[in-house]
Amino acid sequence: MNSVILMMNEELPEGAANLTFISFYYNSMATNKLDDLQRRLIAFFKQNTEQEGLTLREIANQVGASHPQTVLNKLNQLVFRGYFVKDDRGYRLLREDVENKLDDIVQLPIYGFAQCGNKGKQIIDEYSQEKMPVTIAFIGTSDIKNCFFVRAKGNSMEPKIQDGDLVLIRQQPSYDESDFVFVLHNQLPKLKKIINQNGHYMLESINRFFDKVEIDPYDETKVIGVVKKVIKSM
C-alpha cells in the first residue's frame, strides 16, 4: 500500500474547506474523467511513498497547484471517487485501484534555471534532478521525448513568466516571432522573444523595464525550443 502522510495543520479559513469542497466535488462528478491536477496528484503519491510530514503547500509546489486549498479539494474529490482513502495518518493511495488508469501520465525532467533577465549568469543543469508528473493531454503532443521543463529565474518576462515558474519547453529549432523561446545566448540560457527589428535580431523581454538586447553576428546563439505551457509558482 502506497501512502504519503500530510501535515493537516494548514492555515485555511474555518469552514471554507467544506463549502469550497462541495462546489468542487459536484463539478468534478459531472464527468468520469480525471482532470490534469487529479492525475498529477495520483502520480505524485505513487512516486513518493511513505514520506511523513508533507504539508499541503509542499505538495502543491511539487504538482504545480496554485494553492494548498486546491490540493485539499482535489484530494477529497479523489477520496469520494475511490482513488484514495483518508485515515488518522492522512491520505493513502489505493494503488491496486489506479494502476491501469495512469497510462497517459509521464514524468518530464526539470532542468536548472533559465534566466529571465539581462544580467548575471545561470547555467542550466546538465542532468535533471527533478521530475514533474503531467498528462499527455497537458503537454499537448505525443512527442514526449522532446519536451522538458525549465525553472524560470528573474522578472523580465513578467507577467507571463515569473520567477520560479515551471516552463514547459518543446525542443525545436524553428519559431515564430510571437513565440517565447528558450535560447542559449553566449552560453547563457534565457527565456525571451526573438524579433527582427530593421534587419537586426533582438532578444526581447515583455517587461517594459528591460531593454532589448541585440544579437551580434559573432554571438553564440542557439534556439533550443519554444515555450508551450507555464505552471505558476506559488
Describe the protein:
By secondary structure, the protein is an alpha+beta fold. The protein has two domains: 2-101, Winged helix-like DNA-binding domain superfamily/Winged helix DNA-binding domain (Arc Repressor Mutant, subunit A, Orthogonal Bundle); 105-231, Umud Fragment, subunit A (Ribbon). It is 23% helix and 35% strand. It is built from six helices and 13 strands. The chain has helices at residues 16-28, 36-47, 56-63, 68-80, 95-98, 136-139, and strands at residues 2-7, 51-55, 84-87, 90-93, 105-115, 130-135, 147-153, 166-171, 181-185, 188-197, 200-204, 213-214, 221-231. The protein has a nine-stranded mixed β-sheet. The longest helix has 13 residues, at 16-28. Mean pLDDT is 76; it is low at 1-31 and 119-123.
Give a quick rundown of the structure:
This protein has 6 helices and 13 strands. By secondary structure, the protein is an alpha+beta fold.
Straight-line distance between termini? 30 Å
Main beta sheet: 9 strands, mixed
Question: Which structural category do the helix and sheet elements fall into?
Answer: alpha+beta
Indicate how many domains the architecture comprises.
Answer: 2
> If strands are numbered along the chain, what order do they take across the biggest sheet?
6-5-7-8-13-9-10-11-12
CATH classification class of the largest domain: Mainly Beta
- The overall strand count is 13
What fold name stands as the CATH topology of the largest domain? Umud Fragment, subunit A
User: How large is the share of residues in beta strands?
Assistant: 35-45%
**Whole-angstrom Rg:** 20 Å
The CATH architecture name of the largest domain reads Ribbon
Poorly predicted runs are 1-31, 119-123
Shape: elongated
Mean pLDDT: 76
